[in-house]
């Protein structure tokens, strides 16, 4: 059943589980305390809009720095060198889109979801249904990727590699997450993200200083260490091309990925929803500033950790370890601080998955309850806001269960493409719609539907027929071959096409609500009449 | 006053503010900053991605020790992101917030906040 021998050598699963258990216990207490004041819909969805900018900024970085960006980027740098670093640049620069174009205007015009912003001057029913569809699609792809990642982490860090054991751990992660969301709502979820962000960033900072100390705080010496450890040809680690420079197609694929990364972040629904948890647009601005500072700092740490893992642990050892690239940061922790530091990093990695999954679940459930149930099914006539929250809670349980089952089914699949898919859908379906809606006077219902449904379906179709799903060694179905689209990342095609569709759908329809746009523009720029923080 | 009448008045109110000179200044100052800045950082990012993708030789030139052009340009992306963030915050605090606050106070003073959509 449980095979305790195949994890990282010298690993202490009991210690890892104890530290993780401690995290869960502490956060549960915080969530319970935070939930005392959760009464209204604004409390449940937006934490009463009472978080300060810095608090929300820390929570945003907790939401954003997923296991993929912690273990994944450090691992990619350790194994591929410079090409791993390219991810972090895209992930960071993307926040400028959120800061300059989206965060404040969104905070001023909406209540809880992306659908609110669109519904302001368009036909409520269809645009809310569309916004909820793409929100749930993005959340689901992202959620599945996180849950499958949990399965890989389990085998890596807890030494649990048996089928039943892995499924059990995925179920536990899912159940704890459901409790967070159910009991704590947005307030509880936010505190989980804050605690996790503090642990993750301070853990990474400590390891960074430790690694730099070994190389006399000289980055050039650290790079030399990674080159030497890699042996002949190790110089390639310092230069671009190790991962994406193989062929013309892989270069194009990277360009496509880079585009989706930089434009996807500001369209990720769980990021958008976080802007509603602060009392004013100015606090929304401060949150993004804090998020940019923390996320930027963290990616600088991963650069050191990645090359540090390459220099201290070695590329070959990492590639041979269970979990492959993902093992780089944990192995480095072990080499530096022995089983205790490894246990800490393992627990942080789990906490990371837990917090991100909780953020996604509350976003998807809010979108269903607020957009579909309250405003499409009940046409805005819900008997008291409490029944909407009740629906959101039920939805959260359903999504949690689907995530558990999906995670168990996907745990041995190569589902890395799911994160790329989530970013591509966010950049193609959501971002054009949000930007047009906030800045383009003429934009209308038809345009919004074309850009959302068009962007969503183009992206999914291109992914299904890409090498990520079939026709290659690393595909999800390596034995099948129905691939005709050559790029694993569809952004290069789907993003411009979605912007075009949004424009085309708009000009083909006569609908145009001049007065409502005037009102929306004044509200979005000044914050007049914006939702206030609830008073307890 | 009936609800419809009140809504009608509110619509007129929004329109009046929207067409007024103060709001025009606010919008010009916001768009005049964020649109060019977006073009700049997206262009600069795209240049970096293209160089990393297609100019391996250039990116691999060593500047000092093991620090090559690629690493410096990558770190400069971090620097420019932090810089643009700081510039925007300064611009918003100095040139946007005071006007936005004035218009908001005016609007919320005139009509009750409850009048929505």
Describe the structure.
- The complex is a heterodimer of chains A (536) and B (117).
- Helices cover 74% and strands 0% of the residues of chain A.
- Chain A is mainly alpha-helical and 536 residues long.
- Chain A has one domain: Sodium/glucose cotransporter (Up-down Bundle), CATH 1.20.1730.10.
- The radius of gyration of chain A is 23 Å and the shape is globular.
- The model of chain A is unreliable at 1-6 (pLDDT under 50).
- With 117 residues, chain B is mostly helical.
- Helix content of chain B is 83%, strand content 4%.
- In chain B, strand 1 and strand 2 (67-68) form a beta hairpin.
- In chain B, helix 2 packs antiparallel against helix 4 (69-110).
- Chain B is elongated and about 70 Å long.
- Chain B starts with a helix and ends in a 7-residue tail after the last helix.
- The interface between A and B is large, with 54 and 56 residues.
Topology order of chain A in helix (H) and strand (E) letters: HHHHHHHHHHHHHHHHHHH
Strand content of chain A: under 5%
Integer count of domains of chain B: 1
Number of helices of chain A: 19
Compute the number of strand runs of chain B: 2
- What's the N-to-C terminus distance of chain A? 50 Å
What is the global morphology of chain A? globular
In this structure, how is the largest beta sheet of chain A organized? none
SS content category of chain A: mainly alpha
So, the CATH homologous superfamily of chain A?
A: Sodium/glucose cotransporter
Briefly, what CATH class of chain A? Mainly Alpha
Task: Give the strand tally of chain A.
Answer: 0
Radius of gyration of chain B: 23 Å
**What oligomeric assembly is this protein in?**
heterodimer
- Report low-confidence residues of chain B grouped into runs of 5 or more: 111-117
Report the sheet with the most strands of chain B, covering strand number, pairing sense and barrel closure.
Answer: 2 strands, antiparallel
Work out the helicity level of chain B. over 70%
CATH architecture of chain A: Up-down Bundle
Question: What gap, in angstroms, lies between the N and C termini of chain B?
Answer: 17 Å
Low-confidence stretches of chain A: 1-6
